[in-house]
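thought: fold this chain, then report.
action: predict
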Amino acid sequence: MTWIAPPVERTTALADLTAVSERATLEGWLNWHRETLLAKCAGLDGEQLARAAVEPSSLTLLGLVRHLAEVERSWFRRSFAGEEIGDVFTGPSDGDEGLEGVDAARAEEDFAAYVAETSACDAVAAGHGLDETFVSSRGVTLGLRWVYTVLIQEYARHNGHADLLRERTDGATGD
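observation:
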């Protein structure tokens, strides 16, 4: 049986983010963008998810899922929490951050790894204040608030890419 990316049940409605705390706003926007990425993939099989649909780019929906798992791990777990852990999908020095090397046959595993990584990142951030800081690999002092903000912009940019990839794959648009 061919694996199909599952439908996404929204847990975050943008209308619910208008009168909440700063922390709830940041968490809500990040979750909304995570769900948007998965919604862009919903209903597609591994072959469709691994297809580079906007030539000449090699970018794929599956590559975006993998990449965003890497980016979340890098900021939340390695940088903020100081965990000494490897990459989710790639070698430590390959520089592609999960975008390359997609394999349609591993789509289900890659999705599971993405979901596990976002849960691990949420667990790292839980109980920490937005003003808590860390020193980045470039020697700059940053805070948890900054991590949320940079991830929201990363997802916003890549969800735009996902819009184009999905439309070119099967014509679906929206959200």
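thought: worth noting. The CA atoms of residues 12 and 28 lie 6 Å apart.
final: tokens above.
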